[in-house]
Design a protein that fits this description.
363 residues; two-stranded antiparallel sheet; globular
Length: 363
């Protein structure tokens, strides 16, 4: 008997051929509007080619050993079934009070989800109806638009102005209409590295109050910022806690993007809706990693402070970029968000290749 070995690329090509022959009318209208994620496509290509991956936003430092040990211990102690770890909510409640002055009821105001991505999706599905408009800052993370579209909402983009990605108040206010239901705020910001200032947050809060709309925040990078830049949660501004859904996770802070432990913090009615959607879609976040999250969220202040230190690798990267101004234009000084750097490359592919090789070997 002859055994035929099918490579991954051949299997993928076969699937694409089968898809091409399958009638698209069998797909939903929403599904037909989606295309493969460029981030995922480039990441898979980088993985196959053993190339440097500049597409995906994840830390390049390992997870702290004590957090990995906590996950292993949870698995060995058989925390491997459906589970809700209330201790996560208790820790988050205390942290929100200590850091932002917010009173969050751990029993009603927090939903544990499979990463920030699911928390964001469930937040959108809990408040957005067909035809509702949602204001987004451009550029933004690709997931936002997809979730809004699936809910039947209409994304409305407001461009941030380079080189410092500032918010134009007039342009922002003109984006609001009687159909505006929510604003999405990601600060510290992906992909620019911007940390929104208090003045900008007050403009956003003012618009939410004026138009009586909600805000969904993505705060996954809150602990990773340079220049002593302080992250301010929009929910901490006057009259904004009852209008804000905070989404975040342990992914970036603890370098565990594959663990998928995140949460949404919101007024009780909305948090309950998010929790119900989460249960219907995924039932529970990974049990052993919820247990490990207890250890992660109990980390001392020194751990969080260490994330703000500019290491030698970052300094080398910035030096390479800043000393090659003929080919690269930096759009900001050393970024305020640790692994985001804005730059404009001239169209010289050979130079770019050489640049990446230099960065790789220097680091």
């Amino acid at each position: 008997m002859t055994t035929t070995i099918v490579t991954e690329d051949e299997e993928r090509a076969s699937l694409l051929r089968d898809s091409a022959n399958y009638p698209s009318g069998k797909l939903s209208k929403v599904a037909r509007t989606f295309t493969p994620s460029p981030i995922q496509e480039l990441s898979l290509l980088a993985q196959r080619s053993n190339a440097i991956n500049l597409a995906e936003g994840f830390p390049d430092f390992p997870a702290p050993p004590h957090i990995k040990n906590a996950a292993v211990s949870a698995i060995n102690f058989d925390f491997n079934q459906y589970r809700h770890v209330q201790g996560i909510c208790d820790l988050l409640s205390r942290k929100m009070k200590d850091k932002h002055g917010l009173n969050v009821d751990p029993s009603t105001d927090i939903a544990i989800c499979c990463g920030q991505t699911e928390a964001f999706a469930a937040a959108v599905f809990s408040i957005i109806d067909r035809g509702d408009e949602v204001v987004l800052f451009d550029p933004c993370y690709e997931t936002y638009e997809g979730c809004i579209t699936m809910a039947g909402g209409v994304p409305v983009y407001v461009a941030l102005d380079p080189p410092h990605w500032t918010l134009d108040p007039d342009r922002f206010m003109k984006a609001f209409t009687s159909r505006t239901k929510a604003v999405v705020l990601n600060s510290p910001h992906n992909p620019t590295g911007k940390v929104f200032t208090r003045d900008e947050l007050e403009i956003i809060a003012g618009a939410c109050c004026t138009w009586d709309c909600l805000a969904i925040t993505d705060e996954v990078y809150e602990h990773i910022a340079f220049d002593d830049e302080k992250h301010i949660s929009l929910a901490s501004l006057p009259n904004m806690q009852e209008k804000t859904i905070i989404t975040s996770s342990i992914s970036k802070t603890f370098s565990v993007t594959g663990w998928r432990i995140g949460w949404a913090i919101a007024p009780a009615l909305i948090a309950s809706a998010i929790r119900n959607i989460h249960v219907k879609v995924t039932d529970s976040a990974p049990a052993p990693f919820q247990e490990a999250a207890l250890t992660a969220l109990s980390s001392p202040p020194e751990f969080y402070q260490s994330l703000k230190i500019v290491d030698s690798k970052t300094e080398k990267l910035y030096f390479i970029l800043s000393t090659n101004q003929k080919e690269i234009t930096l759009w900001s000084c050393l970024p305020r968000l640790a692994f985001r750097l804005s730059l404009s490359l001239r169209a010289h592919s050979f130079y770019l290749l050489n640049f990446l090789i230099n960065v790789h070997f220097l680091m």
